[in-house]
Amino acid sequence: MKIKNYIFSILFFCGLTGLINLQAQNKIDSLTLQDGKLILNLETAIDIALSENPSIKVADMEITKKEYANKSAKGALLPQLDLIGQYQRTIKRQTVYFDGGFGIGGDIDPTKYTPEELKIAQVIGKLFAPDPSTTSSSEGVQMGRFNMWTTGLNVSLPLIVPSLWKNIQMTEVDIELALEKSRASKINMINQVTKSFYSLLLAQDSYRVFKETYTTDSLNLVNITNRFKQGVVAEYDVITADVRMKSLIPTILQSENMMKIAEIQLKMLIGIDSEVPLIIEGALTDYEDDIFNTLIPADTSLMNNSDLKQFDLGTQQAKNVVELQKSQFYPVLTSSFNYTYMSQNNDYKFKDYRWDPYSVVGISLAIPLFNGGQRYHNLKQSKIQVLQL
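Request: output the structure for the sequence above.
Response:
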């Protein structure tokens, strides 16, 4: 049985690893392949980057997080329900003193009782009446029991809470800011992928030019060598052609390294494995018009500039913070409801306990007066932040 479990665990992890690799392979297989190589153009590279790059995914997660924060802020306006349970053990019971008896006897209104009830009340009053020679320092009565069990339901609902309303407005601006940051990250990603793609094309063209130059110089060296053997040219021309051809070798190696670096950078940006072979479609001349329009755009207005939009949203957010600090000076009105069952006893015989219900409903009004100047200084701080923006 242990061997079977061990083999099952190995097969499970192998299958899980294979599933992950299959998902990654399906992503690549969905694109155009040629001889096991990924055919990539600028549009395909941008599409992969916008779906696979981690920074884009993080920006989208930030939007989702702000949406949850907005829902949480709105949830503060809904009723809050708490199921409570409490146990208290009395160490020393409270002592209560009654001056002038227990409120019966001399304080009885005779018009409200029958003669028989008056007689009974007078007898009880004489039994519990204090000694005339004693005062309020007479012996008291201990009240309560040692064990107290409480369970019930607490419900609270904010009625007028300005700070909650302002907090909801702030979270809505946070969502807009997160959306704008996501748009900025996508614009930045498109810009980086485009520049990296052009750099790779430039490196490939440079490498191709140097290789062709080397091939031409090699043929030229063979031609000059043959002419030297026939005595047509001097040995100096052969040496010059050989040096010119060999001087291209470091340049070719450097351009080849630059081409590899540009390819790795492009793979990193679009979020694919560095071992995946690429075939780049087109040449740099095919994107000449796009490059010219990028360098000299037709629209030079700043209406859609993401940095300026983020700046405006940040200013609006700072103003909302000022309003939030002002709301701390306003009164707060809340309502509450409590329904509780309580049991008091001196033992732990739960089946014999008697549970008595107790319920209250009320409205609470809190008017802030003084808290050490914290609200005032926080308001000043928020106003300075607005001035800084």
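The longest helix spans residues 162-229.
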